[in-house]
Design the sequence.
C-alpha cells in the first residue's frame, strides 16, 4: 500500500488537489481536485504524481486537443468573416455579383473590425466547434447584426426562413406591390422564380420549382 502523501494545494497540470476523499485498497489515496476550467474531479494520488491526469476529463475545454480545436474554429470564423467582406466589397471575386453587385453590404462595424463580428457571433450562439452557419434573415438585406443569425444547418435555415416582409404565411412567397413573388435560396443565393398575380400561383410555382429540380429532400412543398 503506497504511503499517504499530502498533496493539498499542489498543482498537477491544470488540477489543484483540494483534499483527500478516502482511499482505494489497490490504488491508494483518492484526491478531490479542482480543474482550471472550474470543474471538480477525483484522481488517485499516483495518477497525479506521475502526470497521468492533468485535466478534469477528456472533454475539458483546456486539454491541448480542445485548445487546438478552439483555435482552429476561431480561425474558421475569421475565414468566414474574410469571405463575407470580400463578397460584399471586392469586385474581383467570383461571388461579388451575387452580393456587393446586388447591393448587399457588410455593416461598417463588422467590416472594419473582426473582433466586433466575433463578439456578435459569440453572443448569438456561436461557439468554437459548434458548426453553426451564418444566415441572413432577409436574403436581400445586408450583413449586419439585425439581419443575421446562426442556424444549425443550411437546410434548416432555408426551410424555415420567413422574412420580415413575408406577409403570405408561406416560405419563399412574398408580397411585391400588388403581386406575389416566389423565391428560393440555393447555396446562399436567392433565386427569383417569378412574380405572380396571386399568392396561390406563387406558392405553386415554388412547389413546381422544387419538384422540377428534384429538391424535395431539401425543401418542403407547401399546400394552400
Ligand atoms: Zn477541466
Sequence:
Amino acid at each position: 500500500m503506497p504511503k499517504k502523501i499530502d498533496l493539498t494545494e499542489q498543482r498537477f497540470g491544470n488540477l489543484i488537489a483540494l483534499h483527500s476523499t478516502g482511499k482505494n485498497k489497490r490504488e491508494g489515496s483518492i484526491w478531490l481536485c479542482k480543474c482550471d476550467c472550474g470543474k471538480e474531479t477525483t484522481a488517485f494520488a499516483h495518477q497525479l504524481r506521475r502526470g497521468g491526469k492533468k485535466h478534469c476529463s477528456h472533454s475539458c475545454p483546456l486539454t491541448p486537443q480542445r485548445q487546438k480545436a478552439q483555435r482552429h474554429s476561431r480561425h474558421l470564423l475569421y475565414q468566414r468573416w474574410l469571405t463575407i467582406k470580400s463578397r460584399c466589397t471586392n469586385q474581383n471575386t467570383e461571388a461579388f455579383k451575387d452580393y456587393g453587385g446586388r447591393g448587399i453590404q457588410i455593416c461598417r462595424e463588422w467590416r472594419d473590425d473582426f473582433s466586433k463580428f466575433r463578439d456578435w457571433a459569440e453572443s448569438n450562439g456561436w461557439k468554437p466547434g459548434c458548426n453553426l452557419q451564418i444566415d441572413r434573415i432577409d436574403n436581400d438585406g445586408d450583413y449586419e447584426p439585425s439581419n443575421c443569425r446562426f442556424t444549425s444547418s443550411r437546410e434548416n435555415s432555408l426551410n424555415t426562413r420567413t422574412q420580415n416582409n413575408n406577409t403570405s404565411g408561406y416560405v419563399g412567397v412574398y408580397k411585391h406591390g400588388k403581386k406575389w413573388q416566389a423565391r428560393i435560396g440555393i447555396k446562399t443565393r436567392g433565386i427569383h422564380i417569378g412574380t405572380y398575380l396571386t399568392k396561390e400561383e406563387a406558392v405553386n410555382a415554388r412547389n413546381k420549382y422544387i419538384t422540377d429540380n428534384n429538391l424535395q429532400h431539401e425543401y418542403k412543398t407547401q399546400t394552400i
